[in-house]
## 1
Amino acid sequence: MNGTRFPYPNTIGTNAVYQNMGNANYNSLQTSLKRTAGRFTFLASYTYGKSLDWTSSIQEQVNPFDFRKEYAISAFDLKHNFDFSYNYELPFDKLFHAANRLTRGWAISGVTRCATGLPVPFQSFGDNALVQVQNNGVNSVSIDLPNYNPSLGSLNVNHNPRKNPLAFNTKLFSPNSPGTFGNSSRRFFYGPGIDNYDMALRKTTSITESASLEFRFEMFNTFNHAQFDGAASVDGNRDDATFGKS
């Protein structure tokens, strides 16, 4: 940040020391059900979990003087995740009362997934905290966090950018003052979730005892349902035109 290290210029170099350290925990409830009933087979699984850590990448170091203050939701956390896969052998042989190569081997299958969204990250590369924020890609060092003031109103998380381009109420956030660490958590709410349906229609024809021919017609995102991304890389600087936008 220009002007915060007077009389020293911003061209002064640094030496970085990296340590393999951190604290993380994951707790979850996992359940699955598999069932075969005649021509119908399905597998359903559901996970309810939460992952918390000090940092999810090298870039997310915020306060080098107190790592415990960085404890927050992991970047990859999914609170709810439901998967349903199925296969149904179509009874054309019974409908047409003819069990032959033309009527046998038809099936419809698919995978349905419904999950909550990923956490929305907060970060700023302005180096207001004066800890030498370096944004150089995958090896970025440290980030700034904005100040969060919930007394100014509701967060109003919005998961549909068609209604409003803002993913949340940006008025609750302000840049941290020079020489201070923002009080916002790295992550504390989630972006839009996933609601996806993939399906396939297939026909398997036996040629010999060891050979068969399969025809498949596959549809991904069958119902053409929009899957919105979260407010990625939210900048703590309110002057940034992308702040809070999906």
Note: The first strand starts at residue 24 and ends at 37.
## 2
Amino acid sequence: MDMDKSPMHVLLIGSGGREHALAWKLKQSPRIGKLYIAPGNGGTERLGENVPIVATDIEKLAAFASEKKIALTIVGPDDPLALGVVDLFRARKLRIFGPTKAAARIESSKSFAKKLMQDAKIPTAQFKAFDSHTTALAYVHAHGVPVVIKASGLSLGKGVYICKTMEEAESSLKAVMVDMVHGEAGREVVIEDFLEGPEVSVHVLSDALNQLVFPSSQDHKPALDGDEGNMTGGMGTIAPVPFVSTELMGTIERSVVRPALDAMLKSGAQFEGLLYPGLKITNDGPKVLEFNARFGDPETQVYMRLLKSDLLDLLEACVDHTLGNLLSKVEWVRGFAANIVLASGGYPDSYKKGFPITGIDEAEAMEGIVVFHAGTAFKDGSLVTNGGRVLGVSALGGTPKDAIDKAYAAVQKIHFEGMHYRKDIGAKAASFYDSVRI
């Protein structure tokens, strides 16, 4: 593929660990010119220029992209996609990576996604959607537990409730639909049958017609060890997942990925960007828990460590509908990557900000360690906490255990008041890998 090799000015939208990882990888492209991150964080500040525009102010973002002659804008989080940032940019003849508002509904409306899966015969849990608390409650009483209750709209990964008792189901429905703890996202809920099996994340770059399926990864959503505690945006990841075979990835591509992209194309809302199905690997095969319409966080952190090829080339090919030309050339690092999230005390509930962070330089002095910033900022020249998930400590290794051990050794160098993290990220994957190697 004959790409223009002149430097490209790039705008990256977002402020989390995902965006730091994307910026870190984009900065390695020989084609990158000026890199702007809006609004960015304490880590992205060292890779490009942070721009004080929030991710949801899509009018200001478009005006900035036009003013700075941005060659490509890359959208990190889900909110601007749901607001139609891609549609706005395209209307102004600005090139942007990500799905349109209509295509992003596969994430922004769980009821839309479930109906799409039903129509396309994509394997998923049996479900019902409700916009009335009374009828939702009656359904749960008739159905019985366990069930999974999900706020239909966007809720930062926290609107999912696994209810194993009727009391849990009743209190979850009240929280979502009556107390509106997730705001407008809870006006409608999806109630699903509970699925048994390990969770796996899959990321797929798409130009609508072609797809590049990344290696498998596994996020750890609950806040505490042993998958206990409240749901979070993600406390850590391992990739690839040892028990996900090449054959299973082929099944996922055939039964989930391609049918979803074809269904979107058929609906008139073709999907261009990053499609991320979250899956349960059940005894009956892989089943979709949900679709996301953007890079995952903290999955992106491990994927950017493993990807050898130029990220900018791949994202631009999605926009230009030329991804098929690159598929045979994409290279990945052999081995495994782990990422451990360091969170503020109290996360995912209320937490305080502004605590000094120490030890990042010492951690990154260790071989193969990269620390990705998420909720950080500079205050009076010092790096401080500025969010729930503060940092992601990533490492590579020849085995899952190698990568995990290196990441945890680096974690020991870092400190801030209230810091907490899971001690068992990747433990099941490592145990499986070790058992099949013996």
Note: The chain has 14 helices and 23 strands.
## 3
Amino acid sequence: MAREVPLVAGQHAPPQVAMGVAMPSAAATGPEVVSAAYAILNQHERMQLRQQRQWIEALTGFERNNRYVLRDTQGNDIFFVRENSTCIERNFCKGACKAWRMDVYLLGPQGIQGGEASMTPFIHMERPCTLTCFCMNRPEVLISELGSGRLLGSIFEPFAWCNLQFEVRDPANQPVLITDIACCQWGLCCPCPCDGAPCNELAFPVTDIGSGQPVAEVLKKWMWGDCVQCMGEWDNYWIKFGSASNPDYKVLLVALSIFIQMRFFDRRNQKN
């Protein structure tokens, strides 16, 4: 019998420590920081993920660590996400084998303007380097809680030929949610940054593996900056949490949107 997904708020996965994950120091990350961040997550049914434009990268093409802002429906900054990959990983490692790591920060009183010194990281995402070849050593990102080291789960990309498929897995490494879309969609075949165009958006519906019912959605909206790097804003995603009221699952859906971006739409992969 298929296992049900605990989507109700407060039903946290049992604490597990992420083994083999090289996490940065998080001495300032305590239970109160994580609780405050989860309390904020509980207030939102959807969030916008926007990549911050970096002019040095736009003008020179030299890859820098990606930076994202998570916003609410009114455009208010909620969380900050920063990549912490090395120069070699960013500029010389490509495709499905590429390693990267990111941290999600709780903003301080001054918000984004206060800089990273005023923020506190509370979630860590680790994408280890893998020797991926067809169905062997498929890409995976581990998501853990800083401070305690509790493993929330992982995002796994199975081998799916032409489809774009990702599995959201629980701490026991069991798949609980899945998104699987065909490659023959307007938003993939003919991406267009014009609002209202049929190919302006690309939807990744998220399905509960246990019930087979849709429970959430990740929506990519094409921007002018996707087509011309120094023109307009960069990547734009909407994460619709739907039935996923558990903050752990909301974090995993945020990680899913970042993994989709890094795996298929990041410029360093498009140079392959």
Note: The two ends are 42 Å apart (CA to CA).
